[in-house]
Amino acid sequence: MKKAEGKFKNTAKYLCYVAVMAATLTVGKLALSFIPNVEVVTLLIICYAAVFGRRYAIFATMIFCAVETAIYGFGTWVLLYFIYWNSLAVVSSLSLIKPKLYVAVIIAVLFTAFFGVLSTAIDVTFAGIYGVPTSDLGKLFGAYYVKGVWFYVTHVVSNLLIVSALFVPLTKLLTKIKNGNYLEKSKNLTTLNDVQNDACISKNDSCSVLTVDSETDKKETSDKP
User: What stretches of the chain show up as alpha helix (H) in DSSP?
Assistant: First the structure.
């Protein structure tokens, strides 16, 4: 019975973590969607994979891709998302068993650069499916990639800076949450505040009693001839 309860709690905890991760990926993307090719999804997936492992990161990433598809509909980018983001989660979880900043930065830069290549390749592949001659696909790939090269450069540079600055503090925070230290600290602070509030209330009650006694003594003294 206890084993079943423990298994249920672990499953519930796992699902809660994954749901929160997927939600933060979606919210993080939406929060910076007004800035072209600047995002924190890469940072978050790398950090989740480094701290929690691929079992959490891949499931959260798949939910994120599914939610994006539900929001924006189907297109060539759907295939791009499911290939790219899940590959990032797998590689990050395998490469960052021991979280290291320089490894995280290398993964972010290489994958972000690969994003532009993969995106262009998928678009060109669909163009071939829809009737563009095979002999023209190479030229089409070059034209597509050159057209978007400044967006790709912005993407690479922004992720280089974002991961370099935020990987270490974010993984430390996630590690505390994973180990329960952060929640335990919050619980202890809440308990300490409650104790202090109770002590303050008791002190105020004592002060009130003293004040009443003083007023009574003062009145009795003034009534004496």
Answer: 2-31, 41-52, 54-72, 76-95, 101-129, 137-147, 149-179, 181-223
